[in-house]
Amino acid sequence: MLSFTRSFSTSRRALVKVAVLGASGGIGQPLSMLLKLNPLVTELSLYDINHTPGVAADLSHIDRNSFTKSAKGPDQLKAALTGMEVVVIPAGVPRKPGMTRDDLFSSNASIVRDLVDAVGNYCPKAIIAIVTNPVNSCVPVAAEMLKKRGVYDPKKLFGITTLDLIRASTFVGELKGIDPMLIQVPVICGHSGETIVPVMSQCKPKIKLTDSEICDLTKRIQNAGTEVVKLKAGAGSATLAMAFAGSRMVDAIMRGIKGQSNVIECSFVEYNYEEAQYFSTPILLGPNGIEKNLGLPKLSKLERELLKIAIPILKKNIKKGEDFVLT
Ligand code: NAI
Q1: CA-to-CA distance for 183 and 198, rounded, in angstroms?
Q2: Which N-terminal residues, if any, form the signal peptide (predicted)?
Q3: How far apart are CA 182 and CA 226, in angstroms?
Q4: Bridge-partner residues for 266, per DSSP?
Q5: pTM
């Protein structure tokens, strides 16, 4: 039976090769584990500047039919990236109490710039999914870097905002006593404070919420990351829920690659809305990344007001990322 299973699974080539850059971190490790458990992954390439040989050896003992390899330090980036189809990037410094995501820019922008440059060099056709904060600025950093290399494909660059979506489902579910897995709330615009705009009016299934419930839920979703940072008291930001959210997004990307129909997730991608060049909207995923950007859902008056507050902040975040590479 064992040998049957093994020989049956030699169709590995039809599956997906995924690299995690920042694989030894608080997010990187559980995210890598969830990807190791995903049957769509055929090869898992773990890269970090620290500890990857041990993390990869540990994960490689899990009895799944995928190959796990490790690379440590910039000299091994070529080996980590060559042949990869999806690259997830959770490398970088997390928040400490009192910090905003924007405060991370000075440490993390250069990490994202250099890693994305290597992706552009060694696996230019890969789909890139960025976890590193501030996502609102790091995605433009990545885009400008790929443009510099002449390999930018806007269909293949994603900022992961899935944590906002799972939080929205959880908090609505808690409030109404409904299984959160049955609830979907689109969350649009960006991934920091007021740029996180939950679209409660399009919640599926339709759930009756009062204006004050919507306001409270919106504030909680916008500040949920900060809630975790405070409670972790200096030991970092969300890691476990983020790893789960990241694995859901990468799973969706891989199902798109495999040609599964109707795979939709919200993500922060190139999309011009009111002159903000990047924007999180629902995306239909396909073999080459974005199959179709489904655009903004219908918005209530309150949601349009939230966007009015968010757009100037988002535009500033985007410009900061672009200027970092261009000047
Ligand atoms: P962590 O400090 O636990 O791990 C970061 C890892 O990145 C470390 O293993 C470190 O060695 C590695 N690293 C640093 N520089 C690197 C480089 N040049 N190349 C490769 N690896 C490098 O941090 P944690 O908690 O895993 O957070 C990672 C990032 O994810 C942070 O920027 C954080 O703000 C962000 N984040 C994003 C969320 C989202 O919803 N998109 C949610 C939560 C955190």
Answers
A1: 13
A2: none
A3: 26
A4: 282
A5: 0.96
pLDDT 10s digits, 100-159: 999 999 999 999 999 999 999 999 999 999 999 999 999 999 999 999 999 999 999 999
Element (DSSP H or E) covering residue 125: none
For the record, the structure tokens of 76 come out as: 């091994």
Cβ–ligand 1 contact at 25 (below 6 Å): yes
- Summarize pLDDT for 297-319 with one digit per residue, the tens: 999 999 999 999 999 999 999 99
Quick one: CA dihedral 8, 14, 20, 21, positive or negative? positive
Whether ligand 1 lies within 6 angstroms of the CB of 95 is answered as yes
61 is an active site residue = no
pLDDT in tens, 225-280: 999 999 999 999 999 999 999 999 999 999 999 999 999 999 999 999 999 999 99
Binding-site residue ranges for NAD(+): 22-28, 48, 108, 131-133, 242
Q: Strand pairing partners for 46?
A: 20, 70
Give the residue among 73, 74, 71, 107 at the shortest CA–CA distance from 92.
Answer: 107
Residue 248 phi, psi (nearest 5): -65, -40
Amino acid of residue 155: K
Q: Which residues contact 294 (CB under 8 A, 6 or more apart)?
A: 264, 281, 282, 283, 284
Picking from 252, 238, 245, 278, the residue whose alpha carbon sits closest to that of residue 86 is 252
Separation of CA 132 and ligand 1 centre (Å): 6
Catalytic pick from 156, 191, 255, 315? 191
Whether ligand 1 lies within 6 angstroms of the CB of 26 is answered as: yes
Side chain identity at residue 52, one-letter code: T
Is residue 49 lining ligand 1, measured as CB closer than 6 Å?
A: yes
Residues 12, 159: Cα–Cα separation, whole Å: 28
Report the C-alpha gap between 90 and 28 in whole angstroms: 6
Cα 5 to ligand 1 centre (Å): 36
